[in-house]
């Protein structure tokens, strides 16, 4: 095995061990989408009528509609949280250790992103299993077909988190990122309502949603769960990933936090 | 004059500024294989900045750093491969076992499987930590956590071991044990650079670089720096500080 793959395996193993050794963290990560599924979806079920739109071939309940969006939400939170922790102090020490590895920084950061994706996929599968237990099931093979799509969407959202944390100095805490990144991305997407429904109230909002990479991540996940291929959503996701990653690697500077402290 | 081939770490005229504030103003010294080199300076002397430059967290705009003959600016990966680092702040995953943590680090240096296992056992043996391998890091006391970090820094068989105030926050017994362990490593052939502001961690035979406000005030054996009096007195006199032990 090349030293690149050995390092990748080591980083993914470490992130997984850390995540699963903290059971409360695993439970906490599942509470958010479950609350949306159990409370929000139940409330909206009566209010929202959904027509038959691809990939669905029949009328569906609102709970069924929002499951792919909640999968995306798990990855959105994970991506932002893990990337922010890379730059700010919580993981500064661990990051310094990582960067003493004699491998290119770009590769180490990619490994770190991929490790975050592996953890998010574990959360998503448990979430999907719980949804299944509640009677919200997908195509049986969809649970497997969604895997490569989740790797891609997770990498895209992780790279976005890295880009945000490496470029916007003001967003020093997670609350700021919640308000200015996660909420707008989540609400201005097809996670909670289909684009045509959004278009009924505001064509402008629909256009913004259609431009939002998170919309395309959610649609790619949604189609894969029903064993269908959404080429446009995949292309948007791949394109966004490449752009975010290139910009993030270009902008990432592990010395920034240190310099900021010292020059204050 | 030292023979160039034994120089494991060489720092030549390294300068660094935080904005307009000078942190290092032309620092030069070498660390030879088999020597314990203390970087002695009060808080704010520039020790941590130098460590950030040595570990490539910061890049020195001026000067040259080389590790085992590899220029850190030109061949950073070759240089990092020969360097073991113990940071001032702990960099441990508390919920992982000692062995899991060490495997993670071995992986970062491209070591896996049996090769990693053998290197980890050897490093644990050197620090007397073998029997703790299965415990979680959280279960270790401060002294053993530090020892584990030192063991970790040795896994990839570095030419030079850098330690940035490694005894901060430890009790007297742990401090003494760790200082003795690292002196043993130097006696065994390792080049050691040990940053500290505590003179009692330095033995008479150690080489000492006294750093103050980013400048080197002395570079000699501890005995020579101390002169007629004690090293603590000489250090206080040079730096005008009062926090040396």
> What ranges of chain B have pLDDT less than 50 throughout 5 or more consecutive residues?
none
Helix content of chain B: 25-40%
* Structural class based on helices, strands and sheet pairing of chain A: mainly alpha
| Total helical segments of chain A | 12
How does CATH name the architecture of the largest domain in chain B? 3-Layer(aba) Sandwich
Number of strand elements of chain A: 0
Strand order of the largest sheet of chain B: 6-7-8-3-9-10
Task: Please provide the ordered H/E string of secondary-structure elements of chain A.
Answer: HHHHHHHHHHHH
Approximate strand percentage of chain B: 25-35%
Task: Give the CATH topology of the largest domain in chain B.
Answer: Rossmann fold
Identify the overall geometry of chain B. Answer: globular
Order of helices and strands of chain B: EEEHEEHEHHHEHEEEHH
Task: Provide the residue-averaged pLDDT of chain B.
Answer: 90
CATH superfamily of the largest domain in chain B: P-loop containing nucleotide triphosphate hydrolases
Structural domain tally of chain A: 1
How would the blueprint of this fold be written?
The complex is a heterodimer of chains A (264) and B (245).
Chain A: H1 3-21, H2 23-47, H3 62-87, H4 92-98, H5 105-133, H6 142-167, H7 174-187, H8 195-201, H9 203-211, H10 213-225, H11 231-251, H12 256-263
Chain B: E1 7-18, E2 21-32, E3 36-40, H1 47-54, E4 62-67, E5 70-71, H2 76-81, E6 83-86, H3 98-108, H4 113-126, H5 142-154, E7 160-164, H6 172-187, E8 191-196, E9 207-212, E10 215-221, H7 222-226, H8 231-239
Would you mind describing this structure in some detail?
The complex is a heterodimer of chains A (264) and B (245). Chain A is 77% helix and 0% strand. Chain A has 12 helices and no strands. In chain B, 33% of the residues lie in helices and 27% in strands. In chain B, a hairpin with a 2-residue loop joins strand 4 (62-67) and strand 5 (70-71). In chain B, helix 3 (98-108) packs across helix 4 (113-126), helix 4 crosses helix 5 (142-154) and helix 5 packs parallel to helix 6 (172-187). The longest helix of chain B is centred in the C-terminal third of the chain and has 16 residues, at 172-187. Chain B is globular, with a radius of gyration of 18 Å. Classes of the chains: A mainly alpha (264), B alpha/beta (245). The interface between A and B is medium-sized, with 33 and 36 residues.
């Amino acid at each position: 095995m090349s030293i690149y793959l050995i390092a990748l395996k080591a980083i993914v193993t470490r992130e997984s061990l850390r995540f699963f050794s903290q059971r409360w963290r695993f439970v906490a990560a599942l509470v958010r989408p479950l609350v949306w599924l159990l409370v929000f979806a139940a409330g909206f079920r009566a209010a929202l009528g959904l027509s038959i739109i691809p990939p669905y071939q029949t009328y569906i309940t609102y709970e069924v509609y929002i499951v792919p969006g909640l999968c995306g939400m798990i990855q959105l939170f994970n991506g932002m949280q893990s990337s922010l922790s890379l730059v700010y102090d919580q993981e500064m020490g661990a990051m310094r250790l990582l960067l003493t590895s004699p491998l290119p920084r770009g590769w180490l950061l990619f490994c770190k992103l991929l490790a975050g994706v592996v953890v998010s996929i574990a959360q998503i599968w448990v979430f999907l299993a719980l949804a299944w237990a509640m009677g919200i099931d997908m195509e049986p093979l969809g649970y497997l077909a969604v895997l490569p799509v989740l790797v891609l969407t997770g990498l895209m959202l992780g790279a976005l988190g890295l880009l945000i944390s490496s470029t916007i100095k003001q967003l020093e805490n997670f609350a700021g990122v919640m308000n200015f990144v996660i909420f707008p991305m989540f609400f201005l997407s097809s996670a909670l309502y289909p684009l045509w429904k959004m278009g009924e109230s505001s064509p402008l909002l629909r256009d913004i949603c259609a431009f939002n990479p998170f919309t395309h991540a959610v649609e790619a996940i949604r189609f894969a769960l029903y064993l269908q291929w959404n080429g446009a959503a995949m292309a948007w996701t791949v394109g966004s990933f490449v752009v975010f990653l290139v910009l993030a690697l270009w902008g990432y500077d592990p010395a920034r936090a240190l310099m900021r402290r010292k020059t204050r | 004059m030292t023979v160039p081939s034994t120089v494991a770490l060489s720092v030549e005229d390294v300068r660094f500024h935080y904005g307009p504030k000078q942190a290092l103003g032309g620092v030069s010294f070498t660390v030879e294989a088999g020597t314990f080199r203390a970087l002695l300076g009060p808080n704010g002397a520039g020790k941590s900045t130098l460590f950030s430059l040595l570990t490539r967290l910061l890049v020195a705009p001026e000067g040259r750093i080389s590790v085992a003959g590899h220029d850190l600016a030109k061949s950073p990966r070759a240089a990092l491969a020969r360097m073991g680092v113990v940071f001032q702040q702990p960099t441990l995953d508390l919920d992982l076992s000692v062995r899991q943590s060490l495997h993670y680090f071995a992986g970062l240096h491209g070591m896996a499987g049996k090769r990693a296992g053998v290197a980890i056992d050897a490093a644990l043996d050197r620090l007397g930590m073998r029997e703790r391998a299965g415990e979680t890091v959280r279960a270790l006391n401060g002294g053993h956590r530090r020892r584990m970090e030192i063991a970790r820094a040795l896994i990839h068989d570095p030419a030079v071991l850098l330690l940035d105030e490694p005894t901060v926050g430890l009790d007297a017994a742990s401090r003494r044990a760790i200082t003795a362990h690292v002196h043993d490593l130097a006696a065994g052939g390792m080049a050691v650079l040990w940053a500290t502001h505590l003179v009692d961690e330095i033995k008479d035979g150690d080489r000492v670089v006294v750093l103050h406000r980013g400048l080197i005030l002395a570079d000699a054996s501890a005995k020579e720096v101390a002169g007629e009096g004690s090293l603590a007195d000489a250090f206080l006199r040079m730096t005008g500080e009062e926090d040396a032990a």
